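TEACHING EXERCISE
Course module: macromolecular assemblies
Task: Read the component lines below, then compare them to the predicted structure of the full complex.
Student: A.B.
Group: 4
Components provided:
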Amino acid sequence: MARKVKIYTTPNCPYCKMAKKFLADNGIEYQEFNIVEDKAAREEMKNRCNSLAVPTICFNSEVLTGFNEAELREKLGL
Amino acid sequence: MYELIIIGAGPAGMTAAVYAARKKLNALLISSDIGGQVLWTAGVENYMGYQLIEGPELMRKFEEQVKQFPIDTKTGEQVINLAQTNEGFEVRTTKNESSQTRAAIIATGKRPRQLNIPGEEKLRGKGITYCAICDGPLFAGENVAIIGGGNSALEAADDMVKIAEHVYLISLTPFTGDQILIDKVTDASNMTVLLEHEVLEVEGESRVKRIKIRDLKNKLEKKLDVGGVFIEIGLSPNSDPFKEIVKFNRLGEIEVNCANETSVPGLFAAGDVTNVPEKQIVVAAGEGAKAALQAHRYLQRLSR
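Instructor-supplied answer key:
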């Protein structure tokens, strides 16, 4: 069952790279938004997800702020 | 039952893992991440063998080398307790799994230090950040406060004056960073420097609205309206789960001797979590190697 995973990132953020690598290593497709360039995505992350830190990872109704492998594993059911 | 459990997979822990594997120890490596603090380091120019390499790339190479060996690994789990048993130690993780071992190496490194003030925990990720290079761009056009007086605070300030509306740089002490950075930052027109000021509280419900600070000289308190608070006050050792059994120095670092032995026989420590001077990748890697070889000697003595 495909779920739509969105990840909001900034270019110099090491945790964003770790989170993307984790998703890729686990075969999870994601859509990435660089919030430095994409202002609409930045507003979406700040206001809709109510998150003020990157990476912010959203799917279904989950919003995970920061990269916490254990939490991400659990929420994704890995 | 393992012969050796290595806690932490930064330069010290991963090097220890390779040395332990080459001694054919039945070992387990447990860590919340692979790479530790090096993952937040952009360019590394002083790890021998590489003139310049990105931190995460260097850690990927360490990981590859660990994976050459049949060593058990658990990642995404943190050790929350280490207790002595009759035969050695029991290690318990956040998943509430426990493992038994005859010897252990603590190589858990350091993490960004917190202020420990009201509002900090609640507003983390809601305007409070410990990673300026990550979250800085989010606060473009807003007022922000940077807390700290060392190089990392000054570097964050230097980045933020370019994109924020106004930057307050607040330090408990006079600046401790490099003069070249101090000059660069204090010249900016949208910067207010508040030295010898203490941050008392971060206020806001769903996001940061303001901070309350106090001037240490005249004791006057005031509030500053800010949307972002960048905490850059150094690092603290990840030693809390071990506080009950080993000896520490006043910084919370685990005390080890030159053979990486802690105050508990069979329990070794290596890298930035210890009192070893100089927190460097190359030093941590060397200490990890020493700790694994010493643990091997200890296990040999046990079996005699």
